[in-house]
Amino acid sequence: MNPPSPAAALVGHIALLAIISFGGVPGVLPDLRDFVVGAHGWLTDREFANCFAVVQAIPGPNMILMMSFIGWKVGGLPIAIASALVTFVPPCALAYAAFGFWDRFRDAAWQQRVRRGLAPVTIGLVIAGGCVMARTGESGWASLAVTAAAVALMLATRINPQRAASCRLAGDQPRRT
């Protein structure tokens, strides 16, 4: 049996990651990086970090954009489109199918436990993604200084960075949290 083409392997892996992801791209970043950079060498660590930085900086669905950028690099426009489609079509179909079951048992004790259990899983996956990006990015005193300044500013002002960014896009003033 022949191994799948790079495009088929990428699209299949993206579909799998999309179905199991919690918290968007950061939740599956370690596996995505290992697959794209480590296992296949389609992107360098620098290109991977740049893709992630771009999708975090622009508004919109960042997981779809990230997978599209990687698909573009591997196989051009057709693979970019296929990567975008498998990023949201399988999870949407799964969510649609599961909603009736989930809603039917919304008052069940097991559902409350599942909800409480998903929070730490999501947080752990996002932290793992942050660790991958920290290792991938350029490390040095300048990077450390910028990170420390951003953390200090966030803690000193108590402004939620996501809320502040969305307010700037909408023209509103950010609220202190």
Which secondary structure elements does this structure contain, and how are they paired or packed?
Layout: H1 6-20, H2 25-39, H3 45-57, H4 62-104, H5 109-136, H6 141-157, H7 161-170
Outline:
Helix content is 80%, strand content 0%.
Descriptive notes:
With 177 residues, the protein is an all-alpha fold. It has two domains: 6-138, no CATH class; 140-177, no CATH class. It has helices at residues 6-20, 25-39, 45-57, 62-104, 109-136, 141-157, 161-170. Helix 1 (6-20) packs across helix 4 and helix 2 packs across helix 5. The longest helix is centred in the middle third of the chain and has 43 residues, at 62-104. It is flat. The N and C termini lie far apart (57 Å). The model has no long low-confidence stretch (mean pLDDT 80).
Order of helices and strands: HHHHHHH
Counting DSSP E segments of at least 2 residues, the number of strands comes to 0
**Helix vs. strand class:** mainly alpha
Biggest sheet overview: none
Number of domains: 2
Note the overall shape.
Answer: flat
Q: What portion of residues belong to β-strands?
A: under 5%
Q: What fraction, in percent, of the residue positions are helical?
A: over 70%
Count of individual helical segments:
7
**N-end to C-end Cα span:** 57 Å
Low-confidence runs: none
Query: Mind telling me the C-alpha Rg?
Result: 19 Å
Can you give the mean pLDDT?
A: 80
